[in-house]
Design brief:
Elements lengths: L1 H25 L6 E7 L2 E5 L2 E4 L5 E2 L4 E4 L4 E6 L4 E4 L4 E10 L4 E16 L2 H5 L4 E5 L2 E5 L4 E5 L2
Parallel strand pairs: 9-10
Antiparallel strand pairs: 1-4, 1-6, 2-3, 2-5, 5-8, 6-7, 7-9, 8-9, 9-12, 10-11
């Protein structure tokens, strides 16, 4: 009987730790896309941490993408949209949702400086008002086609 009580106490003390792991892992947002190309100095910043960008790295909503004076960066989003950045650029992916079955289509970004080449994917085809890029001077609504933008500090 004493052995059984000790065994149960040990088993119960392990259960809460095991249950916490899946709950915290499931709270991570779904990746919006991935880094497809890196040249020179290029960075991904999230939650106060900045790391060198790597090909294949997941891109999540809220992430800031930036390049140095000699950098270039290419990102492919889940709907096939392609974002390319030139030197000395900074963009934050504010919001990205691509769930056509639930009618959730949205791409919101802020270009603070530098150059951006945006080739919209399926999200623009399904909802022409779903893509917008904010700049220090205003908002650009992207309805399709190839968009080239430059923000000078």
């Amino acid at each position: 009987m004493i052995y059984l009580k000790k065994y149960l106490l040990r088993a119960l003390s392990v259960v809460p730790a095991v249950c916490l792991v899946p709950a915290s892992a499931s709270s991570l947002p779904e990746p919006s896309g991935h880094v497809a190309r890196v040249a020179g100095a290029a960075y991904v910043s999230s939650r106060g941490h900045t790391n060198a960008a790597k090909v294949g790295q997941a891109v999540l909503p809220g992430v800031a993408l930036s390049t140095g004076d000699d950098g270039a960066l290419g990102v492919i989003l889940n709907d096939g949209s392609v974002l390319s950045f030139g030197p000395h650029s900074e963009l934050t992916l504010e919001e990205y949702r691509f769930a056509p079955a639930r009618d959730e289509l949205r791409l919101r970004a802020t270009l603070r400086r530098g150059t951006l080449s945006l080739i919209p994917g399926d999200i623009a085809r399904l909802d022409p008002l779903a893509i917008a890029v904010d700049t220090p001077e205003g908002r650009v609504q992207v309805r399709g086609g190839h968009v080239l933008m430059m923000v000078i500090e």
